[in-house]
Design a protein that fits this description.
heterodimer; A: alpha/beta; globular; B: two-stranded antiparallel ribbon; 2 strands; binds adenosine-5'-diphosphate; binds magnesium ion
């Protein structure tokens, strides 16, 4: 389990992470969802020992995190937002280096390399150089590298950013497999769908704070079921209604071309994370 | 400890393996030009400190080549890994200590310098100059490599871009390359200038290598000076690594 107590990280005067109290049970998948600059990356870097907190504590299974602790580092895996791969190594060599870094035995290393190359579906690429791999394959390689030493917790920072939809889904499948194998997963994303598909809990983050936290279903159940989108005067007004009839009545009373639809997680996201007032931000 | 250093060395070994041809050619092109232009051209036939100028020159070139090769190997791989490939993070997040990391880089750099120095001696043989070497000649080459690998490590941890890295090279390495008794005898210099030049570690390295090559003795003072520089640069680099990791 990961627990943070009033976690704060400041850069100069700015609080990139501002008083985080996270609670992530073992074996669960948690998504930090938020706009750019919300502090998601900073949070993951704090949780993965890459960054020192300005204030506050992190506990993993009740044990206070010591950043230099090798035992702690062995329990964590990290996939960072940017590609961090040796460009002139092959995928097999990248994994081998990781095995060396984690002091894995020769036999374990070899078995894991075979298994993970297959797991990632990269048999055809295993002898190419990293610099020749596609973005999707680089990302997959980073994921299997991060789990090679069998960590308990895997952190992923925007694991599918910039990838096309079908590759994104194949990466989701990879992550689902890891999850069902019992790994705790903490990921950041600004794709709502990604959080919904992969995670059982979502923390919506804005300006360094968790502004709302719930299950995907929980977010949906507290949100009115219908939305009327009404575009006029060069902006869209969004109005929320508990049922279709009241939405229809509302439209009948308006003299415009409004449309009605089911609300979705994106509406919850906008309502919670939009700092400038949703109407402002939703201007067309 | 060795378990922690090994991956750092192996990482550098793959870099070397993938581009050994470029590494080798760029390590010897400078020395060949120095031997031809200064040794055979400018100084051909003359002698210095009782030996032909070429024989005088080559230990100096070995010294400066070792220095530049280890400095460049480590500063390039670390600056690239830290700023562009972000591979430095992989070591930060791994269960190895910064001390092991820096030690690994220093050893890797030292070996790269040693390799380049050996290449120069090979080239010298092609030019008909066979140096007298003893085991301590090689040990001094390795120590020199350690020293400048650590300087490169420090530089790479400080700079913000490759352009900065180049400036560091121009202002720190280039003056040493030419001034530190590599191409000429320091005996001819005015006292004050000579004292200043003796502050640089490369001066002591080229003095020692030349002394061995020409059957002369060097002083323990030379060795201790270089050792002190090595320790100082290592600690500086280690300190910077800890700061970046914080
Ligand atoms: N190393 C840093 N130095 C200064 N400011 C930083 C640094 N890293 C992040 N920040 C700032 O902290 C805020 C949060 O950044 P980040 O955690 O990267 O957000 P996100 O990942 O949600 O987009 C941003 O305003 C960013 O500019
Ligand atoms: Mg980010």
């Amino acid at each position: 389990m990961i627990k943070t107590e009033n976690l704060i990280r400041q850069f100069g005067k700015q609080k990139a992470v501002d008083g985080l109290n996270l609670h992530i049970p073992p074996g669960s998948a948690y998504a930090l969802l938020g706009p750019n600059g919300a502090g998601k990356t900073t949070t993951l870097r704090l949780l993965s020992t890459l960054l020192a907190p300005t204030e506050g504590e992190i506990y993993v299974d009740g044990e206070k995190m010591q950043r230099a602790s090798k035992a702690m580092k062995s329990r964590l895996g990290m996939v960072s937002q940017h590609f961090s791969l040796q460009r002139d190594m092959t995928p097999r060599e990248v994994l081998k280096l990781h095995g060396y870094l984690h002091g894995m035995s020769r036999r374990d290393r070899k078995e894991q390399i075979e298994r993970l190359i297959r797991f990632a579906g990269m048999e055809a690429e295993q002898k190419k150089l990293v610099s020749e791999l596609s973005g999707g394959n680089k990302r997959k390689l980073m994921i299997v590298r991060a789990v090679m030493h069998r960590p308990d917790i895997l952190f992923l920072d925007e694991p599918t950013v910039g990838l096309d939809a079908s590759i994104r889904r194949s990466i989701w499948d990879l992550l689902k497999k890891l999850r069902y194998a019992g790994m705790t997963i903490v990921l950041t994303t600004h794709y709502i769908e990604e959080a919904r598909v992969l995670c059982d809990r979502i923390g919506m983050m804005s300006q360094g704070k968790i502004v709302a936290e719930d299950t995907p279903e929980g977010f949906m159940s507290t949100l009115p079921a219908y939305v009327v989108e009404d575009y006029r005067d060069e902006r869209t007004d969004y109005s929320y209604f508990p049922d279709r009839d009241s939405a229809a009545n509302y439209i009948a009373g308006q003299n415009t071309t409004a449309t009605v639809r089911r609300s979705n997680l994106e509406d919850a996201y906008i309502l919670h994370t939009d700092t400038k007032g949703s109407k402002e931000r939703l201007r067309a | 400890m060795i378990r922690e250093i090994w991956p750092v060395l192996w990482d550098e070994w793959i870099v070397f393996k993938r581009s050994w041809f470029q590494i080798t050619t760029s390590a010897i092109i400078g020395p060949i030009l120095y031997i031809v232009a200064f040794g055979l051209g400018l100084g051909g036939g003359s002698s210095l400190q009782g030996v032909t100028y070429v024989k005088f020159l080559i230990p100096g070139i070995v010294a400066l080549t070792t220095m530049n090769a280890s400095y460049k190997a480590i500063s390039t791989s670390l600056a690239t890994g830290r700023i562009y490939n972000k591979t430095f993070e992989q070591f930060l997040i791994a269960p190895i200590s910064m001390f092991s990391y820096c030690t690994g880089k220093a050893i890797a750099g030292s070996l790269r310098g040693f390799y380049a120095g050996m290449m120069v001696m090979g080239v010298a043989i092609l030019f008909g100059v066979r140096l007298h070497v003893t085991p301590d000649f090689f040990l001094i080459m390795l120590l020199s490599g350690l020293t400048f690998a650590c300087l490169g490590m420090f530089g790479a941890m400080v700079v913000k871009s490759h352009a900065d890295m180049n400036r560091f090279g121009t202002f720190v390495m280039l003056p040493m390359t030419f001034l530190c008794g590599t191409f000429f005898s320091l005996d001819q210099l005015p006292f004050v200038l000579k004292e200043i030049i003796y502050l640089f570690p490369l001066t002591h390295i080229s003095t020692m290598l030349r002394a061995i090559a020409t059957y002369e003795a060097y002083t323990v003072g030379n060795l201790l000076t270089v050792g002190a520089y090595f320790i100082a640069f290592f600690l500086l680099a280690l300190y910077r690594c800890y700061k970046v990791a914080a």
